[in-house]
Amino acid sequence: EIKGGVPLGYSTHRRWEWVYHQRSIRGEVVFQAQGRRQRLQGQRLSGNRDNTYPCLAVKPIMEPKLYRPPPEVRGMTSLDKDAFTQTITVPALRVPIGVLNKVVKSLKKSSIQRPGVPRVVQDKEQSSDFRLVLLDPRRVSSPSSFSETEAEALRSFSVSEELHYYELKLTYDNLKSEEVLEAVLPQGQDVTSAFSRVGHIAHMNLRDHQLTYKNLIGQVIMDKNPGVTCVVNKMNIIDSTYRNFKMEVLAGEENMVAKVKENGVTYEFDFSRVYWNPRLSTEHQRVVQLVKRGDTVFDVFAGVGPFAIPAARLGASILANDLNPESYRWLQHNCKLNKVESKVRAFNLDGRAFIRGPLKQELPVLMRGTSAVHVVMNLPALALDFLDAFRGLLHHQEPPCDENLPTVHCYGFSKDDDPDTDVVERASRSLGFPLKHRCSVHFVRNVAPNKDMMCVRFTLPKDVLFGSDAEESGKESLLMRSSKKNNNKTA
Ligand SMILES: C[S@@+](CC[C@H](N)C(=O)[O-])C[C@H]1O[C@@H](n2cnc3c(N)ncnc32)[C@H](O)[C@@H]1O
C-alpha cells in the first residue's frame, strides 16, 4: 500500500489494469505502481477513504535531472523564454575525427540526448583533428561509469577514457514541456501537461491550481508540439445534451474548425460545437468492420459521422441521425467531403423520434430482405434507456416468416464491479426482455478510474418488435413470455 499519496497522474490503460504515479513534494514521479482490479475484489482504487492505494508492484524511478531551472522562473505567468537559459557542465570525451562516427554509435547510451542539443562539438583547446562527444552527466561521472562494451569499443578505437568538461548552454528550446512547467508552477503541485489532439487543436483539462498559469501552459504546449496552433481548456464537464464542451482558448488562433483523419477518413467540424473523441477510433473501426456492402445502418446518435461515413464507403446504406443541429450540419458536410452523400440520409431528430419514425418506416421492408441491418446507438450516458423505443415498434404488423432481425450495438457507461452484467441487465429492463445469454458485451475503454464504456450487441428480439407496446404490462408479459420459453428450452 502507498499511504498518503494523491492519485495525481494515474491511468488505466486496459480494463482491469491501472498505473499509479506518486509525486514527491518537488513534483517528480517517485513511485510507479501497477496492479489489476480483478485481484482486488471489492476494493476501488479511488474509493479508499483512508487515502491508501493497493498495489502489487512498486518501482522507484528517481532519476537526477539534467536541467535545474533558475529559481526566478518559479511563479512566472507570462512566458519569458530567455529566463530559462542556463549553462550546465557536462562530461565529454576527446575523440579523433577519423573514428568519430563509430565512437558516437558505440556510446549511444551514455551520450547526451536532447532535442536541439548537439552530441558532438568543436574541441576549442585542441587542434581541428579532434571533437568532443558530450555525455549525459546522469550516466557518466567517471571513466568507470562506461559499460564493459563501451569501454571495449573505446579501447579498440584508441580513444582515451579520460573525461573532459564542457559548458553547455541549455535554452527554452532544449527543454521538454514538463520541465518548463515544473519550473514555473508551485512546487509540489501536479504539473501534468496531458492533452488530447484534434487536428490543430490541443485540448486540456486544467486543474484549479493550474488556472493562474493557463496562458503560459497553453503557449508551452503550442511551442513544444509541432502542428498544434491552438490550445483550449475545457471549462465545464461535458454538456449533457450534445456531449460537447465549453472551451476557452489559452494560446494560438481562435479557429475551432478542425480537420482530422480517422481510419483513413477525413472529417471536418467545429470542435467547440459537436462531439468528437479521438479515443474512439478503434471502436468505430471494430463496428464498421462488421458491416458489409448492401447492409443498412441506422446510426441513432451519429455525431459528425465516424460510424456512418466509413460504413457508407464500404457500400452500406445509412440513415444517420443527431439531435444537435451543428452535428447534423457537419455530418452532411462530411458526407460531401467523402463523396458518400448518395449513400447517407441525414436526420436531425431526437433518438426516440428517429427510431419511431424513419427506422420504423424502413424496417419492415429490410426485414424481408437478406442484407444485414445494424442499429448503432453511441450515447453511452443514455442509450440503454432509449432501447425502450423498440418495444412494440411493429406491434400492429404481421411478423415476416423468415425475419431478418436487426443487430443492435448499444453503448453504456458502467460504474459497477461487474460492468458486463450491469449493462446487460439495464438493456434488458429497457427492452422489457431478458438479454442474458442472447447478447455479447464488449469492453470499449475505461473513461475514469471506475467507469467503463461498454457495448452490448444483440439481435433485436421479435417479441420486442412485434409485442405489445404498452409500457408496464408489456414489460411484464415480455419478460414472462420469454423466460417461459427459456425454461421450456432448458427442459
Ligand atoms: C457520444 S456522441 C457520439 C457521436 C458519434 N456517434 C461518435 O461515435 O463519435 C453522442 C451524440 O448523440 C447526440 N445526441 C445527444 N442526445 C441525443 C438525442 N436525444 N437524440 C439524438 N441524438 C442525441 C449528441 O449530439 C452527440 O453527437
Characterization of the model:
This protein folds into four domains: 52 residues, no CATH class; 85 residues, Alpha-Beta Plaits, CATH 3.30.70; 82 residues, 2-Layer Sandwich (GMP Synthetase, Chain A, domain 3); 215 residues, 3-Layer(aba) Sandwich (Rossmann fold), CATH 3.40.50.150. Strands 19-18-17-20-21-23-22 form a seven-stranded mixed β-sheet, with helices on both faces. A four-stranded antiparallel β-sheet has the order 2-3-4-6, with no helix packed on it. Strands 8-9-7-10 form a four-stranded antiparallel β-sheet. By secondary structure, it is α+β, with helices and mostly antiparallel strands. β15 and β16 form a beta hairpin. The chain is built from twelve helices and 23 strands. It is 25% helix and 26% strand. The relative contact order is 0.07.
